Structures are given as C-alpha cells and as structure tokens.
Give the backbone structure.
Amino acid sequence: MNSTVSVPGLISSIMASVMFGIIPWYIQQLGMDIYSVFWNRIVFTAVFLMLIIMVSRQWRPVVDIFRSQKAMLLLVLTALLAGVQWWLFVWAPMEGYTKELSLGYFLLPLTLTLSGRLVYRERISKVQQLAILLAMTGGALELWGQGGLSWVTAGVAGLYPFYFMLRKKAGIPPLAGNFFEIMLYLPVCLVLLFLMDDFKPIETEAVQGWVLLFGLGGLFAVSTLFYVVASSKLSVSLFGLLGYLEPALLFVVAVVVFHEPFSSDQYLSYGLILIAVLVTCTDSFFILVRSRHSAETVIK
C-alpha cells in the first residue's frame, strides 16, 4: 500500500459514508412509493449537479466527454452499473432489505481491496492485512448468520468494484462524469414523472415535499461526488477499507430507525468490523503524520 494518504481523499471518503448512511432514513421521510422515489432521485440529482456545474462554470469537462469515444463508452458502462446501485439503494430500505444492503456494503471493502491487489498490484501493509482479516471474519460471521448471500448483497459487493475501476480508467473529473451518467437516465425519468399519472411525484401545493425532494437530490449528488473524489485520490485498497464506515451507519439505521431484528450473534461480527475500521483509520492517521513530518524535514 502507498506510504502516503491524500487528506482530501480521506475526508471525501468519510463525508461520503456519513451522507450515504443517512439516505435510507431520509427516503422514509418522503412518504412516497419506490418508483416515485427512484425517478425523483434521478431528476433532482440531475438538477443539483447542473446547478453546481453552472455556479462553478465546469462545462468544459462535460463537453470534453463527447470528444472522446473511449470516455463516452466507459461512462455509458459505468452509468449502467450505477443505475443498478441507485435502484438497490432506494428499493432495499423500502422493502425491508436494509440489512442485506448493509451486508453488501460490509463486503464491498473486501472486494475493492482484492481488486486493488489483483488489478493494480497495490501493496498492503501488515496493519492493513490485520484490518482485512478482522473484516473478513466479521463479514463471514454475518454472512453465515443471514443464511447465505442474497442477490441484494451480491449486487452491491460484486458490481461496485467494476464501477470504480472503469471510472478510474475513463479519467473524467468526478463532477462531469457523474453529470453525464445521470443525464442518460433523465429523459426516461421525466417521461414517467410528468406524463404518467401513476408516477406523479407529489402534490404541487406541498412545498415541503418539493424541498425534501431537492434535498434528496443534493444528498445523492454530493455523496456520490465525494465517493468518486475519494476513489481517485486514494489507493483502491485503502478506499475499500475506509468504506466500512458507511455500512456501519446503514446497520445503525436499520436497527435503530427501522427496527429490523438484531441478534446477539451480530454483536461479534459487527464488533470485529468496527475494530477493523478503527485500525484502518488509526493507521491512515499515522501515515498522514509521518508524511507531513517527512515533508517538513525536506523543506528544512
């Protein structure tokens, strides 16, 4: 593993995990059916991203995408992969599969770390190996407790590594890439929302509802941007290990907010994963300190 850690990458990873962790709770506040939430999620995320691009005047990277057939092809593929994840993230909490979704995100750091090792030949320190071992043990216990691997869990843990690797390969700035992906879905979502009565999102006089929908788009847009920034700034292995914060928050939401059942056996599995998170964060902190000390020494 790299001997340096990007501060922006580390902060972006933590912010993304926190924001994604509260989204299932936020979705419940909308009081809408699954389909309406999903279509509105696309529309209002697109609106939010467009506002960010307009304010920051970042249209050139968006235009540059259309000048590269390779970038366009890769982003179409990432959009397809992202669409599956967007749907699962909305569908699972509303259908009582928050714990399966959470388990998928618990296993995702392991599949990301494995991808970093096999695809990018990244070195993994002994401390990180310890964290991986703890996380693998906790994940295996949780998988055993749930009686197997559900398709929700497999979809999250298995597809996301391909998404992040393709985004790295595309080499497109996070904001432009996310905007391109969301715009591919926007026309269909607009048709469903405004031309089909069954998909009318919310009564026009309910101002609070529209504010909540715009907030939903903002949460998804900003959290996804943070994730893509983190994936581009950090090694795949470290990015994966830091990702354990999100499923931990998802699990808390599932148990505390949605009151999904929680057995005593899960204290051990999630306890091991929590220790793995603490080990990873502590190791990253000391790497940052050593890097800063080395930089100061060179300057002197």
